[in-house]
Amino acid sequence: MFDITIIGAGVTGCAIARELSKYKLKICVLEKEIDVACGTSKANSGIVHAGEDPIPGTLKAKLNVRANKMYDKLKEELDFPFKRNESLVLCFDENDIDKLEALRQRGIKNGIPDTMEVLNREEALKLEPNLADGVVAVLRLPTGGIVCPYEFTIALAENAYMNGVEFKFETEVQEIEKLEDEYRLKTNKGTIQTKLVINAAGVHADEFNNMVSNKKIKIIPRKGEYCLFDKSAGNLISRTLFQLPTKMGKGVLVTPTVDGNLLIGPSSVDIDNKENVNTTREGIDSILEKSKKSVKGVPMRQVITSFTGLRAHEVDSDFIIGEVEDANNFINAAGIESPGLTSAPAIGEMVADIVVEKLSPEKNEKFNPIRKDIPKFREMNNEERRKLIQENADYGKIVCRCETVTEGEILNAIRRPLGARTLDGVKRRTRAGMGRCQSGFCSNRIVELLARELNIPRTEVTKYGRKSNVLTGKIKEDIK
């Protein structure tokens, strides 16, 4: 019997788990995939929004601004990539400049520090010389930032795990039954009994809510396609560029990533299939064309990959957070679309407050907020590298040339708490395979290391779990 069972190991579920690990509770996180951050948390813009966009008074506005202020401390505690690089909202029509001021005033109302300012074109060009010719003014947002979304999620999960939270992967919830004083969750791996359920299941959150409540909700998967550029394009801009929303929509953003790449996107299309993450020629062409409105000189030939994420859009367009009216001890964290990544730490706090009020748990005096990331060889100077290699010779063997990732880092990623079990798991923890060649050079060696460390045949190593096996068999038998 668990005190709390969280459905979903994305950034929302992991932020809630970490916050609740501050109390003496028996907590379990259920995830249908093989790892954390396998859904929307791995495929988004990686933006820490300032908070000027949400409508004042909404949960999106309140939690966005609250969480934005939490990232500096969280970075110190959890050691994940985060940078306050500022954001600019671009205006393309002199008649719309007043809309920038209206956004600034909305930001102040939402609680953003009054450091925002509207700049004319000349002032904006001093910040970003490559702005497109059509940009006439910008709103500068100093508190905007960028984060690695999957490394942030992994950091939250590892810290929650180290503080006692149990994670069950490849465990899909199929039915939820409300009993008198508990819930019974039927999964593909057996039944789980729990006093309280927290629904953080992303695009599937409506399905679980609707199993227990007569107050139905509907989540619409909103498809967003992105293009990622080589690091040689990463210095085109230094700030995140948003387009001022018009009657034609919000446009696309152009941003550097915390790892030095350039990212453009997303598209925005409502679909029916909650598993449809394929990219399309139409979607990619659209975002590339729209990006020219923001910045000139986009090096189209330096795109190294494209990807799609699904946002969990709820029809009422605000987060749904709280205990379900007709299902005692069932708490929703649903409809968590943008600015959901930004808001995750504050969502964790809000849900924890609800749980504390319900269960009155004791504080966990042994809670340790500190988690250290894998040492990054590529970020070290030569003296630091020599010292690390002396301590562990595996750090002297480069496996991924594009990203300068060593065998020591890959082994660390596999062996650490909630360690990697797939190629994508290694990639998200170390960046091995994320460079220009997109794992063309390093994948064979990573497969060998995974097979050895997990004590499985190489043919059982997968890219992302399920049936994504990398190898199917031998071409010929070993020569003796």
Automatic annotation (TrEMBL):
Residues 3-353 form the FAD dependent oxidoreductase domain. Keywords: Coiled coil. SUPFAM superfamilies: FAD/NAD(P)-binding domain (SSF51905). Residues 162-189 form a coiled coil. The keyword Coiled coil applies. Pfam families: DAO, Fer2_BFD. Residues 398-452 form the BFD-like [2Fe-2S]-binding domain. The keyword Coiled coil applies. This is NAD(P)/FAD-dependent oxidoreductase. It comes from Clostridium aestuarii. The lineage of its organism: Bacteria, Bacillati, Bacillota, Clostridia, Eubacteriales.
